[in-house]
Amino acid sequence: MTSTKEIRTTWEKQPEGFPDFLKENSDIFPIIESGHKNENEALVQEFSQRIQKKLRQKPKDKKRQKQWEQKLEQELEQDFTEFLEREKILSLSEWMNPELLNAFKCETKHFINRVREFDETLTPAQIWQTLRNYFIYAMIVDMQGRKQHAGDPILAYSLLYPYTDNYIDDDQISRQDKERYNRMIALKLQGETATPHNLLEEKTCCLLDMILNAYDDAEKKKVAGTLLQLLEAQNNSIGQQQKSVTEEQILEISIRKGSTSVLADYLFATPDWTEYEESFYLKFGFILQLVDDLQDIEEDRKSGSHTLMTEAEKQQKLEQCTNCLLWFTWNMIREFEPVNPELKGFVLKYCVEISLLTAAMNQQFFSMKYLKALEPYLPFSVDFLKKMKKQQEKLINTYQSSNMNPEGVTR
To answer: Which of 23, 113, 243, 406 is most buried, most CB within 10 Å of its CB?
Structure first.
């Protein structure tokens, strides 16, 4: 199976020049004319205004807020379904046949219902956090030629994100309590006795049981081992806050954290594991980690967290680093031969476009010349994205004091 060293070597070989594959593969990345951009912008603006209107209707009476949140979740779910039917941005309806698209919608709804049943106290932002992981899993399921199925392992794994991330990121919780929490998770994954001390730890143990009880013997050992590696990678990622961390250490942390998180999704998506596929999904996880780091670059700079993107920006090499990400995405996904090749084109297009969009949403870190070079392949104009980011920041500032953070929580 691909090692961290191999991924690092492959990453370091990627070109720093502009991704010429965009114009050389117009069948996958067609130039989007202004008329189509205008249609996309109108649709996004319509749904954005809908959401803003609903958020402004939040009652001041705390007793009524829970009822309002539940109603909002249902309405947002309906809006999401309608958006999927009308959008021409990802064009899911063109890549998926009606049966496949319907299965995706049905299982997503089933997944959300199961999340609510497990913990009705989760906020919409936390539910969105679980959904982000589930969408990655759903893509892998399709590429593996399996039927969409929101079973116990992916439900529990996706729910672990808001529990563990929010706990570890909470400044009000002591480092000793965080370390004890992580030791409890490690004991559980090692098959040893783990005693929960509070409701959060009870829920965490319950989720880990839901994952491990779905497997026997060798399979259980492999799944538990992967989750232990992810726990170790998350613990090591604390080192990104240290001023003394080296660029090589940052790369190592990014590879381990991203790759193992998506490897787990793959293990839950299909029972037919192969070394070839595991190697690809490790690289795929690193790609998604880099996209997240590019998305969070402003926040990471403010908090003092060192990522490949923040370091590249300091060295005035962010455009080159973004180009490397685009080339790495193109080369890794294009070479992969999944069981079901029908969705491969969509995954390739989606991963490249999400990187382009993420760069364009962080315009302050890129030259206008670079942004204009990307713009023909974006579903929106650069000016519209700048406007949307301002609206997003306004919403976040307005609702920062509540749990209704419309941005959600990143992976």
So the answer is: 406
Q: Which residue has the tokens 């951009």?
A: 37
Tell me if 306 sits within 8 A of 240, measured CB to CB.
yes
- Amino acid in position 320: Q
287, 289, 291, 292 alpha-carbon torsion, rounded to 10°: 170
Q: What is the pLDDT of residues 203-255, one digit of tens each?
A: 999 999 999 999 999 999 999 999 999 999 888 777 677 777 888 889 999 99
Question: CA 261, CA 281: separation in Å to the nearest integer?
Answer: 9
Q: Give residue for tokens 């929101």.
A: 150
**What spatial distance separates the first Cα and last Cα of the chain, rounded to whole Å?**
24
Burial category of 248 from C-beta neighbours within 10 Å (exposed 0-12, middle 13-18, buried 19 and up) = exposed
**Running DSSP on this structure, what letter comes out for residue 145?**
T
H/E/C letters for each residue in 278-306? HHHHHHHHHHHHHHHHHHCHHHHHHHCCC
Q: Report the candidate in 200, 262, 277 with the shortest Cα–Cα distance to residue 229.
A: 262
| SS3 annotation, 19-50 | CCHHHHCCCCCCCCCHHHHHHHHHHHHHHHHH
At 402 the pLDDT is 45
Tokens of 31: 């130039």
Instruction: Specify the amino acid at residue 304.
Output: G
Percent of all residues in the chain with a pLDDT value above 70, rounded to a whole number? 93
SS3 115: helix
Question: Can you tell me the distance from the alpha carbon of 140 to that of 344, in angstroms, rounded to the nearest whole number?
Answer: 10
Alpha carbon distance 410, 260 (integer Å): 17
CB of 345 within 8 A of CB of 282? no
* Angle of helix 152-169 versus helix 175-189 axis, rounded to 10: 160
Amino acid at 56: R
**3-state class of 261 per DSSP?**
helix
Neighbour tally for 104: CB within 10 Å: 19
How far apart are the C-alpha atoms of 94 and 318, rounded to whole Å? 33
One-letter amino acid identity for 354?
I
Q: What is the mean pLDDT of residues 277-302?
A: 94
Mean model confidence pLDDT for the chain: 88
**Alpha carbon distance 99, 211 (integer Å):** 28
Three-state SS for 75?
helix
